[in-house]
Amino acid sequence: MVLFGGAPGDRVRFSIAHELGHLVLHQSLHGTSMEHEANLFAQELLLPEAAMRREMAGGITLASLATIKQRWGVSMAALAMRATELNLISKRQLSYLMAKLNSHGWRTQEPVEIIMEKPRGLRKMIEVLYGEQIDYHRLGNDLRMPPHFVKRLVESHATKAEFNVATVAGGTKRERGRTLTFGRVPTAEKNSADEADITSAHPS
Ligand SMILES: [Zn+2]
């Protein structure tokens, strides 16, 4: 699975889970329902039903979606789709939420930045052999690859310190594992018309 950089971390997480769904579920390259199945796989992997029902029990608003996004590292749009899939909101309410996201320009750039996660394994192996201060010239020599290339490859993997901090930018730093807890979400503040509870409101 090859991914190109540039997309927000939350989108990348979903894309990886979607592609993983194809790998797990689909042997052939054809089929009409395959995209939907891969999306369902990604949804259940990243946003398990039981936990989502708990998280969304307090109502679904832009504010609550932003809070849940911060905890689960998945875009507000994908969370709204998940809520629809679980029949927590109707298709009409989904369109209303999407229009709201759109009117804020959030369909292209959502609030709550999710930092791109970096895998650790490969760098850890290299550190065992070369030490934490990696000599890229020596590594490049050993691998018969240019030092700048191996440096880029290694740096796309997390250091020990990077691996231990949260995936949420701008917020309080939290330990990995505590970021993605299955606990209760605090009730989102409802302080503007945009954040009205659409599960009880009637959009025109
Ligand atoms: Zn696909």
Low-confidence stretches: 170-196, 200-204
- The SS-based structural class is mainly alpha
| Integer tally of domains | 2
Bound molecules: zinc ion
Tell me what portion of residues adopts beta-strand conformation: under 5%
- Overall 3D shape: elongated
Largest sheet: none
Please characterize this protein's 3D structure.
The chain has ten helices and no strands. Mean pLDDT is 81; it is low at 170-196 and 200-204. By secondary structure, the chain is mainly alpha-helical. It has helices at 9-25, 34-46, 49-55, 62-72, 76-85, 91-103, 121-130, 136-143, 147-155, 160-164. The longest helix has 17 residues, at 9-25. 24% of the residues are buried. The protein has two domains: 9-113, no CATH class; 121-163. 50% of the residues lie in helices and 0% in strands. It binds zinc ion. Zinc ion binds at residues 18, 22, 35, 38.
Compact description:
The protein has helices spanning 9-25, 34-46, 49-55, 62-72, 76-85, 91-103, 121-130, 136-143, 147-155, 160-164. Helices cover 50% and strands 0% of the residues. The site of zinc ion has 4 residues, from helix 1 and helix 2.
